[in-house]
């Protein structure tokens, strides 16, 4: 199976052949994957060099001419470093585009904190109108990338972030680019666990034998409030656990808003705010953040057992 | 311009651009208030969004919006803010104010026009000399020079406002990156016109318009 990044390069290379509106902007990282596409479409595959402010500014300028720009680099250099460019060169101009990141929060632990972006989704939450996809499998990545490149209703102001990861679930789910999927339905009053992207597999392992509803979010923004409400309908005091592969609590406010009219409890799990200052493997980082199946099970059961009676 | 009050802090910034803007809009740019969204139009991006009074005055004089809008400058119900917003003002290509955004956006605009097969439209972007402090400009200058984006033009209004001027002057920063560059008196309309229309095949073009120092 190819990786999500390899799928990104192959799928978007094909889309470049089909859609003359599409353009890819790179800042060295990922350029190899688009070398053949660049040969076919030299005006629509642009490598600006190691210049991430320009990466975003060029994307914004392309959008001003009616192109659909696709910008790619590591999440830390795509969202965190040129954040004000994202805010002004797309949102403030009233234009749209597609950001496709790699690396995420702990895809390259041996690379250390300089190449980790646990805060990317939380940062985008401060801006208006960004759809955020976090695929859990290369096939899902393909579906979501095609959806993102098509650009919603065609007005061109559709802003989409696709967070690719080296972590994947064993099998893809039939994601559509909108909303959550119900993967497992618990009994009345069961807690609802929202698993984001590549953490679904670990969450399903963690809740084995427990009475819990599991929702799968490969698209986290807009947050599917209706699906969450439906998952806890009939529960007097809903319990919600969010399991996200980036900063813990990123979606807590969205979940609280979805349940604003009922007393509820929320546990937001994700990566820790404090730097680990460790290298090693992704499995070691998952465990250190308490996101491996055993830790998740302990934290979920501890949370539900802790409800006031 | 005297109709617009409330941003006197930026009076110097506004008047520094007036002559250069007028010559550009009057004699060079192919833009029309009748077709502000014409895909074949030239693009003018005001990057230095500070002190946009001269810009608004020129746009009003060219008929993009009624001069009656000018006295509302900066008020809640006016589309004319102390920094322009493209979604509010006809003829304004970008919302600006935060320095260092226009030139990268102009590079993308030039690339986008090329990708759409439009070789006609020229892209102009106005920056201030102190705005060149922002590193994003240098990412854009070096890339545009290397890419040979000859539809791209930069108008630098140089009122010596940078605390730490570029060594060797503004024009040499551009020529070092492979641009064509000319420095002229920013109050001399004929000199401005000649610099604006100078040929620069295969290279982007910078016009440095020198005006009275801000801190004279």
TrEMBL record, chain A:
This is Transketolase. GO terms for molecular function: magnesium ion binding. InterPro entries: PDH/Transketolase, THDP-binding, Transketo_C/PFOR_II, Transketolase-like_Pyr-bd. CDD domains: TPP_PYR_DXS_TK_like. It comes from Streptomyces radiopugnans. Residues 2-172 form the Transketolase-like pyrimidine-binding domain. It holds the Pfam family Transket_pyr.
Automatic annotation (TrEMBL), chain B:
Pfam families: Transketolase_N. InterPro entries: THDP-binding, Transketolase_N. The keyword Mitochondrion does not apply. The keyword Acyltransferase does not apply. SUPFAM superfamilies: Thiamin diphosphate-binding fold (THDP-binding). Keywords: Thiamine pyrophosphate. Residues 10-197 form the Transketolase N-terminal domain. Its cofactor is thiamine diphosphate. GO terms for molecular function: magnesium ion binding. Belongs to the transketolase family. This is Transketolase. It comes from Streptomyces radiopugnans. The lineage of its organism: Bacteria, Bacillati, Actinomycetota, Actinomycetes, Kitasatosporales.
């Amino acid at each position: 199976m190819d990786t999500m990044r390899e799928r990104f390069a192959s799928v978007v290379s094909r889309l470049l052949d089909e859609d003359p509106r599409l353009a890819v902007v790179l800042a060295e990282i990922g350029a190899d994957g688009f070398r053949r596409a660049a040969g076919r479409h030299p005006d629509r595959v642009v490598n600006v060099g190691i210049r991430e402010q320009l990466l975003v500014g060029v994307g914004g300028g392309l959008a001003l001419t009616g192109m659909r720009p696709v910008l790619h680099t590591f999440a830390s250099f795509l969202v965190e470093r040129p954040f004000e460019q994202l805010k002004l060169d797309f949102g403030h101009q009233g234009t749209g585009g597609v950001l496709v990141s790699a690396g995420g929060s702990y895809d390259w632990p041996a690379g250390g904190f300089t190449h980790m972006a646990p805060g990317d989704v939380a940062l985008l939450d401060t801006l208006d109108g960004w759809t955020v996809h976090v695929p859990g499998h290369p096939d899902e990545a393909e579906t979501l990338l095609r959806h993102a490149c098509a650009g919603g209703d065609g007005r061109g102001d559709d802003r989409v972030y696709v967070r690719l990861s080296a972590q994947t679930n064993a099998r893809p789910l039939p994601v559509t680019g909108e909303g959550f999927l119900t993967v497992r339905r618990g009994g009345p009053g069961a807690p609802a666990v929202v698993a984001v992207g590549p953490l679904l597999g670990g969450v399903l392992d963690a809740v084995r034998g427990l009475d819990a509803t599991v929702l799968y979010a490969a698209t986290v923004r807009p947050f599917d409030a209706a699906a969450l409400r439906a998952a806890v309908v009939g529960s007097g005091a809903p319990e919600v656990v969010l399991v996200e592969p980036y900063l813990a609590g990123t979606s807590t406010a969205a979940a609280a808003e979805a349940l604003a009219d009922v007393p509820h409890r929320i546990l937001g799990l994700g990566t820790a705010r404090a730097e680990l200052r460790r290298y090693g493997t992704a499995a070691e980082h998952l465990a250190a953040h308490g996101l491996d199946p055993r830790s998740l099970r302990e934290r979920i059961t501890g949370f539900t057992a802790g409800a006031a009676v | 311009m005297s109709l617009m009050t409330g941003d006197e802090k930026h009076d110097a910034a506004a008047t520094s651009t007036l002559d250069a803007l007028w010559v550009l809009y009057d004699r060079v740019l192919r833009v029309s208030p009748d077709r502000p969204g014409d895909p074949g139009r030239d693009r003018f991006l005001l990057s230095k969004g500070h002190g946009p009074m001269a810009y608004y005055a020129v746009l009003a004089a060219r008929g993009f919006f009624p001069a009656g809008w000018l006295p509302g400058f900066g008020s809640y119900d006016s589309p004319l803010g102390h920094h322009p917003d493209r979604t509010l003002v006809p003829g304004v290509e970008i919302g600006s104010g935060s320095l260092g955004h226009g030139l990268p956006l102009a590079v993308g605009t030039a690339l986008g026009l090329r990708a759409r097969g439009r070789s006609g439209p020229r892209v102009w972007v106005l920056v201030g000399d102190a705005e060149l402090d922002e590193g994003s400009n240098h990412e854009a200058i070096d890339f545009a020079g290397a890419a040979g984006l000859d539809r791209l033009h930069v108008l630098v209004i140089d009122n010596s406002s940078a605390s730490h001027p570029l060594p060797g002057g503004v024009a040499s920063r551009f020529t070092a990156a492979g641009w064509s560059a000319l420095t002229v008196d920013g109050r001399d309309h004929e000199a401005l016109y000649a610099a604006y229309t100078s040929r620069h095949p295969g290279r982007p073009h910078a016009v440095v318009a020198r005006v009275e120092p801000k801190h004279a």
